[in-house]
Amino acid sequence: MLLHVFPYIPIQGFTTVDLGFERRNNLSNIVTKIDDYSATKTYLDLFEQVWNDDDKMEDITEEVVEYINWRN
Questions:
Q1: What is the DSSP letter of 18?
Q2: Whole-number Å distance between alpha carbons of 33 and 49
Q3: Is the distance from CB of 16 to CB of 22 less than 8 angstroms?
Q4: From 23's CA, which of 11, 29, 30, 60 has a CA 20 to 30 Å away?
Q5: What is the DSSP string of 24-71?
Q6: Mean pLDDT of the region 10-38
Q7: Residue 18: pLDDT over 90
Q8: What is the average per-residue pLDDT within 6-14?
Q9: What pTM did the predictor assign?
Q10: What is the pLDDT, as a whole number, of residue 3?
Q11: Average confidence score pLDDT of the chain
Q12: Which residues does 23 contact at the CB level (< 8 Å), separation at least 6?
């Protein structure tokens, strides 16, 4: 059983802008925390389904590390 796991929406991606590390010219970016168990479980199940699908996911760890090192 997972405790204290909540989805935050809308997160469109894992870019530096989407995660709040860089700014964009948006008027607003309202993120909502969902603490309802059934809604949370739906998001977790969807995440696991996509995360474990090799046709949809690609490990780009090395590319990210290279980019970070290049930027520094």
A1: T
A2: 21
A3: yes
A4: 60
A5: -S-S----EE---HHHHHHHHHHHHHHHT-TTT----HHHHHHHHHHH
A6: 72
A7: no
A8: 73
A9: 0.49
A10: 64
A11: 79
A12: 17
* Residue in the block written with tokens 């980019």: 67
CB 12 within 8 A of CB 18: yes
User: What's the CA gap between 46 and 51, in Å, rounded?
Assistant: 8
Contact 56, 50 (CB under 8 A): yes
Beta carbons of 7 and 39 less than 8 angstroms apart: yes
Q: Which CB contacts under 8 angstroms, 24+ apart, belong to 26-32? A: 32/8
Q: Are 40 and 13 in contact (CB under 8 A)?
A: no
Contact yes or no for 9/34 (Cβ under 8 A)? yes
- 15, amino acid identity: T
Residue 27, token pair as written in the block: 């008027």
Separation between Cα atoms, residue 2 and residue 43, nearest integer Å: 13
